[in-house]
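Support request, please re-run this one:
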Amino acid sequence: MEMIDEQLEDFHARGIGGVFVHPRYGLITEYLSQEWFDLTAHALQKAKSLGMDLWIYDENSYPSGFAGGHVPDQMPESYNRGQGIRIVKQSVLQPDSSGRYIHIFKMVNDHLVDIAGIVGSETGSKGDYYLYELHNYPNGGWFGGYSYVDLLLPGVTEKFIEVTMSGYEKAIGDEFGDYMPGIFTDEPNIAPPRGENMLRWTPDLFEQFEKRWGYDLRPNLLSLVEDKGEYGRIRHNYYGLLLELFIERWSKPWYEYTEEKGIAWTGHYWEHGWPSPHHGGDNMAMYAWHQVPGIDMLFNSWEGRPDQFGNVRAVKELRSAANQMGRVRTLSETYGGSGWDLSFEDMKRNGDWEYVLGVNFMNQHLSYQTLMGDRKHDFPQSFSYQVPWWEEYRSQADYFGRLSLAMSSGEQINDILVIEPTSTAWMYYSPGGETARLEDLESDFRTLVDELERLHVEYDLACENIMKDHGSIVKGKLVIGERSYSRIVLPKSLRNLDTPTMRLMDEFLRVGGVVISLGTPPEYLDGLATDEMLSWSEEYPDQWISTNRISDPELSGLLYSEKFKVSGQSGADILHHRRVLTDGQLLFLVNSDKEAYAKITVEMEGEDVVQLDLFKGNMRSFPFDTEAESVGFNVELPPVGSLLLFVSNKKIKEQTVESWDWQGEKQILALDPMEIKPVSENVATLDYCYLTMKDHAREVLYFYDASQAIFEAHGFQKNPWVSAVQFKQQIIERDTFSAGSGFIAEFPLNLNADMAGAPLKLVVERPFLYSVYINNEFINPIEGEWWIDKSFGVFDITGKTGEGENFITLRADPMSVHCELEPVYLLGDFSLKSADHGWRVSSPEMLAYGSWKEQGYPFYSDAVDYSTSFSLQDADQPVMLRFGAWNGTVASVSLNGQNAGQIFAPPYELRLDEFLEEGTNQVTIRVYGSLKNVFGPHHRPGIPGFVTPWSFKYAYKEQPPGEEYHTLDYGLMEDVHISVGK
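Re-run finished. Output below.
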């Protein structure tokens, strides 16, 4: 409990207003046990005392639905009745005796005939046979030894809610809807089991299909895989039904439960897979059932993972559904898997981008409670005491806290509706089939929404399922829930409409609505070819606007309002988000480009304009011109820049901070020589060792391979804590090893002669699990001392090392399920030189400008101070600090002992005016590195910004030279400049 208290107090001190309690793989405490609920109740009371919200999470890891193994344990039918069918073709009928066939068909005169009653007589015969083989989700450690469950099976969701929520109701139910605002669900899905040509199945699929669509799916199953028969119709009907069942049997029970209990249901689905219906048919449809709909935006690689950051559609779906359903908050699980090197610039860039598109509730992914064992590899970054920049994080928390408030205020009101071609995609999708049509559809729609954003068109997206439930025509407009639209855009790729959508469109046109069609009118209705809609363009020639590009200048009168105009855009693209308040409007502008400046001119209704400074929390006057009842102003944003403006309906009387704009450089100040010092000891990561076990000869292995071998030798398939969850206490209960079990791991350490016996320290994770030796001398950890993580013990090995090869030995006897072998670390005043295998520890060198890793600090993860001074006769003048080339997660600047601010984003400069003194001024720049350099991944790192547990698993069999380890260049690479302004 002490750890919980410390962590919550730490979050509070960093400006974080709430947390989600997230069980994940590596959890040792038994999930859903009395201890679990007691700890949750304690955490809630601590959060309440700090004025923080504490949300709960509905699963042990993800995807939601199996309750860490408790649902399949208590309800076997949730997983053992089959979730998929695979079509097996045979030219000679030979059913596999071990196969579970629900149907066997024979092609007769181009029709499939069910031969279930005569399989025996047909066996061995030639012909075209189609065997429909039933499959279950596979069992595995990720699901606590069970499998995922069938969320389409009636009663499974109710069992999941019962198993998960009953304990929470007893432990913290009196805080439901108050300091426990709600619950997070994570990636529940209805994907079929893996396998070629696998189709999703549930026991009453065929019954429900015929009830919904009026015909038998069974003889048409082949059309779901091959382009045979009316495959478009059959696929459309099939995936449409799966979506309806998913909503009826998953979303509705959860929505009704949370409404009854007064809590908010948040979380996200597999929104990145669109337009594939593989995971759920239409993720946007699911948002209608959440009080706080959400998405995730993970990783930090716009190019390597374009389905994440940079995917406009995913965020616009969220914002649009929230607008239509009257939801105030829109959540994003953000930053996970970005890697330990995620910088403040990255955080701002990615956060600004999703906020300008419609997010207003950031859920930072994630904050580890401990980094011991494989947990440090679990889709890092972490927002916690272990990271070197944590003391600086308050600026980011306050920035996004203020931005969240702003973007949750008022309303975004858009008059244009763009219908997503999701039901068209259903017609094209085939598991394992060709993907060209689906890829073209995705590309076309992505291009369209990107262009709409670039052109500053204000629009919402439409989900046909939400339109079915909440759509109507009122006073000449298409209404969806709480929003109304006078113009509808049909994408070029939209070829199908569902019947309810078609009826709304038909009525919309009849009452004078305007349609902008980027292609021909839809020629399919519910997947079936029809000419019913082809006449729309002829019947309504003045309302049906056909064009092949949304940027057609003739559309400007239809796409833009006189109340808001953007012009003169140059440089990079700027995105905007406008919200209407009772007394004015908020305008948020973002440049997500990492290198280019961006400029625009804005004209909008209003009488006064102020800048809301998201970092300082004050209002600042902003230059503008007035004309009639409008204001006009120019905006220039640097790379990764943003601007929040309040455009008031009347003159603002409140006090604003006057800007002292930089008018150019008058004088460059002379700086004293820079003193450069690391704030912590240097570090070496030792990640290869010699492993010895009973019946296992001594060999050198990468630590991950060694850990795998250790657990295999002790009866496990792999490290049981890696990418796996513990059901009840199934892992802990196996911790019964006898004396003589275990292993010996010897980590080689090479020292130059001048470092023999030097003051050095050793770091070992969970040292109580091992007997630790340096060159065969037993050593004890320093009591009360830790490094990076409180589970990392520290040993003093001063005077215990010699020239050349030394060995750090970890002996585990007996073995323990907690013995996850990880690298050991060397600390001290030294530099590292590349050797044939790894590194050689050499005498320290003074740091200078340039990369730390090139100066013997390749694994250093903390900060380096750069200190200098300058003289100033007149302290009442503008002074600017500017960086040249540099790299770091963030740089903090102190002037004359006071915190002057941070530098982390272009143009990498900071005004020093507030803290100047006449005479000598002392300035210290602290540049922070990251845990990437100490924890990796160091070998085969893959796509930058895309880091998963698998990124750490693979290395070369033979340890490579140190120079081939992948670490990052941190540091000030060039002189800094301090200048006086005009």
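The chain has a mean pLDDT of 96. DSSP finds 19 helices and 56 strands in the chain.
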